[in-house]
């Protein structure tokens, strides 16, 4: 990313509910994100949901939103999700967190 792209980048949290734990959601999301140049991280939450943190351009965030609307990774069944803005320092890669 250029310095201009970093300045235009933003963060967004996605909270995802449904059958999203125990189906490989985090690891499939990790591979999908790396294939598509998406930065951030994903982890399971104690309430059975998954939290997906994205750092990038509005186009990157829209791309993730469209992927979730289309069902996300194979094996998952997303019942609903919501997102909120997230103020963060730049993130250089995508990771699975525990």
From TrEMBL:
Member of which family? Answer: Belongs to the acylphosphatase family.
PROSITE patterns attached here? ACYLPHOSPHATASE_1, ACYLPHOSPHATASE_3
> Protein name, please?
Acylphosphatase
According to UniProt, the reaction catalysed is:
an acyl phosphate + H2O = a carboxylate + phosphate + H(+)
Source species, please? Providencia alcalifaciens
Does the keyword section mention Disulfide bond? no
Could you cite one Gene Ontology molecular function of this protein? acylphosphatase activity
Q: Where is the active site?
A: 26, 44
Q: InterPro entries of this UniProt entry?
A: Acylphosphatase, Acylphosphatase-like_dom, Acylphosphatase-like_dom_sf, Acylphosphatase_bac, Acylphosphatase_CS
Q: Where is the Acylphosphatase-like domain?
A: 11-98
What top-level class of enzyme does the UniProt entry assign? hydrolase
What Pfam families does its record include?
A: Acylphosphatase (PF00708)
Keywords in UniProt for this one? Hydrolase
Q: What does the record give as EC number?
A: 3.6.1.7
């Amino acid at each position: 990313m250029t310095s201009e792209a970093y300045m235009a980048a933003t963060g967004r949290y996605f909270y995802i509910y449904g059958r999203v734990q125990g189906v490989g959601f985090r690891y499939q999301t990790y591979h999908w994100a790396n294939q598509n140049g998406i930065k951030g991280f994903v982890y399971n939450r104690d309430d059975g949901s998954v939290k997906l943190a994205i750092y990038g351009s509005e186009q990157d965030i829209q791309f993730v939103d469209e992927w979730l609307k289309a069902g996300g990774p194979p094996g998952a069944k997303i019942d609903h999700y919501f997102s909120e803005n997230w103020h963060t320092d730049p993130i250089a890669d995508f990771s699975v967190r525990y």
